[in-house]
Amino acid sequence: MINRYYDIENELDTSVFLFGARQTGKSTFLRQRFPDTPYIDLLDSELRKKYQRRPVLLYEQFSKMPEDTLIIIDEIPEVPELLNEVHRLISQRNLRFILCGSSARKLKRKGHNTLGGRALPCYFYPFVSAELPDLNLDKAVNDGMIPSHYLARDARRRLSAYIDIYLKEEIKEEALVRNLDGFQRFMEAAALTDGEMVNYTNIASDCGVSAVTVKEYFNILEDTLVGYMIPAYTKTIKRKLMQAPRFYFFDVGIANHLLNRHDLTRGTAEYGHAFEHLVIQELVAYIGYTHNSRRISYWRTYTGLEVDAVIGDAEIAIEIKSAEEVMPKHLKGLRAFHEEHPDARLIAVSLDRITRDSDGVEIVYVKDFFAMLWNGGLF
């Protein structure tokens, strides 16, 4: 059994919404962590129909429970009407809930009760390196870290099914978009921009829709936790900086499959892009799980100098290279960033196995970097 990193118990002085993309392992995690807690699984079709017919059943079921009792409702967006009864049980009986789902979009879109701040939003992620003592780095770069994909001997069919069923059918079922053909073209274009700066006008031209529609499509991917934007670091000192955000799918395996990027080998540009994505994915998960207030951004000048990740207000600058030997040419962006932000900690994450200091730049082997991150040694 793989123990997940997330210490959700520290959140439970109140109720929580636990959101996360499908198949990240939310349900398994909750059943393992809370084996004796009342658990309502709304994927059970018979149970779901009963609650849909009479949402008040929830109140009748738990209104006599002792105060502070914890209750888990899995897939709460399937019967959002239950949130009124959850609200009553929190307010009148002081019960606590973990309300699980793949996103909040369905709740917000239909105007359902989101409990008015009585439940904190929390997020669950694919596997992270801290959960896998024997991390197979090349498999993670190729197949991603969604548990069923990472653990599969051959993840390609699973990835194909995941994308066809979840990323397409769920969006269709929720009627989030009217032009499904246009959205399909957008998904392919979004994959091409994975880890790159977003140009809404260019993507709109490729997809045959408006730039406004493309922005809404990206909002859908963010709201359904399929992807996220990394903003540009825009504090200008000397050099003129790019302003557009970068987009990443929530898991590198998803981007690989949409790009038909398979059997990636070290030393190729494709491997390098996926390697960068994996490291960003770890940083995003760490900040999400620890509720760190620092944000991640990236830094790029109009002349092409760049740093892949800037933490906080230029506290840490991280360049990500899949090179097995870091050379001075790999550090140009970090050196340029240091000229403008001399107090920044400079780190180059790579496949170079010799972790060392090179004239103020920490060159860190990727597995050493992951250990540093999850042991609290980065920030």
Provide structural commentary:
This protein has helices spanning 26-33, 45-53, 56-62, 82-93, 105-109, 137-143, 147-150, 156-173, 180-192, 200-207, 211-223, 252-258, 269-290, 332-340, 366-374; strands spanning 15-19, 39-41, 70-74, 96-101, 119-123, 227-230, 246-249, 296-300, 306-311, 316-320, 345-350, 356-358, 361-365. The chain is of the alpha/beta class and 379 residues long. Helix 14 (332-340) links the parallel strand 10 (316-320) and strand 11. Helix 10 crosses helix 11 (211-223) and helix 12 packs antiparallel against helix 13 (269-290). 39% of the residues are buried.
Tags for this model:
single chain; 13 strands; five-stranded parallel beta sheet; alpha/beta; 16% strand; six-stranded mixed beta sheet
Quick structural overview:
With 379 residues, this protein is an alpha/beta fold. The chain is built from 15 helices and 13 strands. A hairpin with a 4-residue loop joins strand 9 (306-311) and strand 10.
**Biggest sheet, strands in spatial order?**
8-9-10-11-13-12
Number of helices: 15
Q: In percent terms, what proportion of residues is strand?
A: 15-25%
Fraction of residues in helix: 25-40%
SSE sequence, one letter per element:
EHEHHEHEHEHHHHHHEEHHEEEHEEEH
Layout of strands and helices, then pairs:
Elements: E1 15-19, H1 26-33, E2 39-41, H2 45-53, H3 56-62, E3 70-74, H4 82-93, E4 96-101, H5 105-109, E5 119-123, H6 137-143, H7 147-150, H8 156-173, H9 180-192, H10 200-207, H11 211-223, E6 227-230, E7 246-249, H12 252-258, H13 269-290, E8 296-300, E9 306-311, E10 316-320, H14 332-340, E11 345-350, E12 356-358, E13 361-365, H15 366-374
Parallel strand pairs: 1-4, 1-5, 2-3, 3-4, 10-11, 11-13
Antiparallel strand pairs: 6-7, 8-9, 9-10, 12-13
Helix pairs in contact: 3-4, 6-12, 8-12, 9-10, 10-11, 12-13, 13-15
